[in-house]
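Thread: quick sanity check before group meeting

JM: Hey all, I'm pulling together slides for Thursday and realized we never actually wrote out the predicted structure for the chain we discussed last week. Dropping the sequence here so it's in one place. If anyone has concerns about the input, flag it before I start.
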Amino acid sequence: MKAIDINEFRVDKTISLSERPTIYDLEADKDTVEKALVTVRKKLGKLQDTLYAHGKYAVLVCIQGMDTAGKDSMIREVFKDFNTRGIVVHSFKVPTPQELGHDYLWRHYIALPSRGKFGIFNRTHYENVLVTRVHPGYILGENIPSINSVEDINEAFWNERFEQIKNFEEHIAQNGTVIFKFFLNLSKQEQKNRLLRRLRKENKHWKFSPGDLKERKLWNKYLSCYEDAINRTSKKQAPWFTIPADDKPSARYIVTKIMYDTLKEYSDIKEPELDADVKANIEMYKQQLNNE
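JM (edit): ok, ran it. Output follows.
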């Protein structure tokens, strides 16, 4: 199977999403790719145990993508070998009345992982510069003092919001959170195929909403907003990775490999040493238990 360089997927200069691949040939069949995923996700799961014991870093994994890009199944398959005590998943949907009573980043702050844990954001704080940019009327629901109509939501507003998001990420990174941001880059044709699959299979009907078709008509506008957000906010402490998402097994493998290859470079993430007195008396403790 083809070896991958994670830098192929990292955004470290201005990109055009239409020029980024939506499919990646790993030069292997599906079974081989899935076996490779199992191998690397077990390594990642073991590393997570060490991270949990170490207790000094948190990991925030942000997953964005068009409808049907495979966010839910990505989370299910990539983190299957994790200890459940070390991972928390949050799926951000339409803000609740309680959430709208606070600033737009509040619900993301309170969902951040504690040290030693992985936090997964299925849709993220970027919804606040994506869906709201496509549908600016949603901003009015935030009840911001300076915004009284859609006409008040100008370019200066979005510039300010992007700065707030970058400051948010810089702040948590400086305090020990390792940030991964993945954009699942799906082609419009593959989205069509997946929507049709939902309609053909009765057990998938629950996933379909007529609203999906309305949003699909705004494909180019969404893509433009994603591209702008990624270019503005892919920074060293919080990089974006564009993941070819037309083939789910290869996308899952690439995401897992990026996380594992990045985290294994943190040489200070290791299990804590036992207290010297405890370590010196291990044999005595064994004997006590064996003599019960």
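AS: nice. Residues 6-290 form a domain with the Rossmann fold fold (CATH 3.40.50.300). The CA atoms of residues 10 and 241 lie 4 Å apart.
JM: adding both to the slides.
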